[in-house]
Amino acid sequence: MAVPKKKTSKSKRDMRRSHDSLKAPGISLCPQCQEPKQSHRACPSCGSYKGKDVLGTQE
């Protein structure tokens, strides 16, 4: 079984983990109702995507 020859320092360990942090999702405004929505997804408030009603929500 392979065993590391030297202990990995805290600096090296933390540099490796530097890309693991969470990022906030991209938020844009819906062109129909001006509510904030996630990019490339149907609007949860009005149900439209690219100008078409895709969720069939009732207003």
Describe what you observe in this structure.
The protein is an alpha+beta fold. It has a domain at 26-51. The chain is built from one helix and four strands, in the order H-E-E-E-E. Strands 1-2 form a two-stranded antiparallel sheet. The protein has a two-stranded antiparallel ribbon with strand order 3-4. A hairpin with a 6-residue loop joins strand 1 and strand 2. The longest helix is centred in the N-terminal third of the chain and has 7 residues, at 10-16. It is rod-shaped, with a radius of gyration of 22 Å. The N and C termini lie far apart (64 Å). The relative contact order is 0.13.
Largest pleated sheet = 2 strands, antiparallel
Q: Give the H and E element order.
A: HEEEE
N→C terminal distance: 64 Å
Mean pLDDT: 90
The strands making up the biggest β-sheet line up spatially as 1-2
Structural class: alpha+beta
Q: What is the count of DSSP helices, taking H or I runs of 4+ residues?
A: 1
| Helical content class | 10-25%
Q: Ranges with pLDDT <50 over ≥5 residues? A: none
**Rg (CA only):** 22 Å
Portion of residues in beta strands equals 15-25%
Number of strands: 4
Give the overall silhouette. rod-shaped
Secondary structure: elements and pairs:
Blueprint: H1 10-16, E1 27-29, E2 36-38, E3 48-49, E4 52-53
